[in-house]
Amino acid sequence: MRHSGGRAAAITLCSVAAALAALAEPAVVGRSLDLLLAGSAEAPRWVALCAALIAAEVALDALVALLTGTTNARSTAWLRHRALGRVLAASPHHAAARFAPGDLATRLTANATEAGTVPATAAGALATVLPPLGGLVALLLIDVWTAAAFLAGAPLLVLLLRAFARTSSDTVSRYQRVQSGMADRLVEALAGARTVAAAGTAAREQRRVLAALPELAAEGRTMWLVYGRAVARSGVLMPLLVSVVLAVGGVRLAAGAMGVGDLVAASRYAALAAGVGSVAAALGGLVRGRAAARRTGELLALPAVPHGLEALPAGGTGALELRGVTVVRDGAAVLDGVDLRVPGGATVAVVGRSGAGKSLLAAVAGRLLDPDEGHVLLDGVRLDRVGPRELRREVGYAFSRPALFGTTVGAAIAFGADRAPADAVRSAARAAGADAFVVRLPDGYDTLLADAPLSGGELQRLGLARAFAHAGRLLVLDDAMSGLDTVTQRQVERALAHDVRPGTRLVVAHRLSSAVRADLVVWLEGGRVRAVGPHRTLWRNPAYRAVFAAPQAPTGAEPAPADTAEAHPGTAEAGTTGAAVAGTGTAAARTGTAEAGTGSADAGTGTAEAAPTGTVEALKGSTDAGAGTADAGTGTADAGTGTAAACPARAEDTPAARTGGAAARTGTERA
Fold it and tell me: Where are the alpha helices (DSSP H) in 352-480?
């Protein structure tokens, strides 16, 4: 109401003026009729006044309709912007926990529209009440007996309005709740459309989405039945009251106590006084708007994430510190008293079993989520005291399932707190391994996102490119390379180390290779930090090795020596590559580590990943070398990675590398 104050005041003035014109019309019409019957010379002037009142009422009603439409639109838009702004200003985890997507969409669309009508409806409420009250007063002034006849039926009108308001409010609230539930299920089905199609359960999903339709229909019928009963009863009551007033007025006219004009005016005022239909309609609009406003208002109650005004120190390297960080969900600590110090410029892998709290730690580290206890510091400054724009410029994120915003591919990469320039977009795309497929699109970087069919890996690379284009002193990669093959992942990691703005990298890792290449590994278990250190040191702990073991690994099997070799690069001599890699491939395949898996998906990419370090270059132009490398690609990912780390390839090592490829193939066949 405060936002629409000016327009609401204009609606009130115009509607009241129209109501006053409507109230004056019966008296002027009655007076004109009496003067015309008497042949008075004043009759034309009164007839002109009557015409002017009718014209004024029509013009004012039209103006009220125009003001009402614009006020409803502006109020709805303002309410939607404010509610959506509050949703986006709140913690993403907090908003998602309180409101399901379909429910949220309903509150921002249908409920906001209904609530947006309240200011205009409330502003016109006075004009709605004026005709009945004014008509009753006019009846008292014209003739007391006609007014008494009308008042005899007034209690019935009051009871009718009271019952309508009470019943309608409950029904509207239930209808809106059912509507939101259906919308939520529809959004779920649309989001999982591919899964539904693959499972062949479209008919079942349709039934699930529409399961509440009978309840919705029942509530809708009840709502309109309540309204219809009110209108029907008023439709019977109003003519009855007017008939009673006319009967009493006729008696008074026969007795000479009233004139013809007075009787005509009394009948019109009785109709205005009995106009409960307009009052019921306005009351129904207010009831629906109030229920919708309560639902939309719950979005406005979301607590916004507070920000300070402090600046991060210039030239900071991105030193990250967590002090006693605790995050509670449903009464249980998901992160429990986490203390962690990450030196600036380091690459840190966060590992742990599913549910250990890795993604929560990543969210807390960049302040996508505030901890329930404890603080997070970046270069010595608490994140909750940093300004929002600087925070988002200096802390970047890449996710496993990135959402792309923008009309074109280039705009999606440039999307951020500050729009990245075109050269930065291209550079970031090259670093993320996305430039090669983007330039093949019909219009390159200007290709519309809707016209760019993207695989899961390509989508992740665009998300990485966006993060690289806006890289600050801290970059958080929350399983952002899970859709990349091992070769591409290694290329992206190499580019991240050399071609992206230097800073601290926090990598939520599920692949063993990510932990191997990190400067430090943070090992989470049950929401606590169990250990922090280099991978080669933690690898000595069987429980740490078990984090990367596949479920089907045989009990008691010795973990893959490949990773030990990878943790200690350079320990094997190039001349003994064949034997070393054979044992590596067999052991890694036996243990079923996360990188070995089934030995097929990442197998080829593992050895291929080792090749760029020198083997492929050394063997260029050699048919036998190409065949050896291709055959070695059938080994496990860890076998290939281990070969690369344990036996760094040189141009003069071509025979040894060729032997290693054959040995790796032999080890895999044994496994």
Answer: 358-365, 388-394, 409-414, 422-431, 435-438, 456-469
Strand partners, 626: none
CB-CB neighbours of 496 under 10 Å: 22
Cβ-based neighbour number of residue 607 at 10 Å: 34
The predicted pLDDT at position 95 comes to 80
CA distances (Å), origin 637, targets 318, 353, 480, 520, 662: 32, 21, 19, 22, 15
User: Helices 144-151 and 260-273 sit at what angle, rounded to 10 degrees?
Assistant: 20
Other CB atoms within 10 A of residue 443 CB: 13
Nearest residue to 649 (alpha-carbon basis) of 660, 663, 635: 660
Q: Supply the pLDDT for residue 443.
A: 92
Strand-pair category, 474-478 with 504-508? parallel
pLDDT at 166: 65
Q: β-strands 373-378, 520-525: how paired?
A: unpaired
Q: Give Cα separations from 627 to 98, 350, 604, 616, 633 (angstroms).
A: 57, 38, 13, 11, 10
What b-and-e string marks burial along 538-575, b requiring 16 or more CB atoms within 10 Å of the CB? Answer: bbeeeebbebbbeeebeeeeebbbbbbbbbeeeebebe
pLDDT confidence bin for 623, thresholds 50/70/90: very low
Could you give the CA distance from residue 669 to residue 665 in angstroms, rounded to a whole number? Answer: 6
pLDDT band at 165 (very low <50, low <70, confident <90, very high): low
The alpha carbon dihedral of 18, 22, 23, 27 has a sign of positive
Cβ-Cβ contacts under 8 Å for 337 (sequence gap 6 or more): 324, 325, 326, 373, 374, 528
Q: Kindly report the number of other CB atoms within 10 A of residue 25's CB atom.
A: 19
The yes-or-no verdict on residue 610 having pLDDT over 80 is no
Query: Has residue 43 got a pLDDT over 90?
Result: no
Calculate ∠ Cα 497-658-617, nearest 5°: 40
Q: Is the pTM of this model over 0.85?
A: no
CB 205 within 8 A of CB 154: no
Q: Which helix (H) or strand (E) holds 378?
A: strand 373-378
In this predicted structure, what is the pLDDT of residue 639?
A: 35
Q: Do the beta carbons of residue 132 and residue 161 sit within 8 Å?
A: no
Under 8 Å between Cβ of 459 and 402:
yes
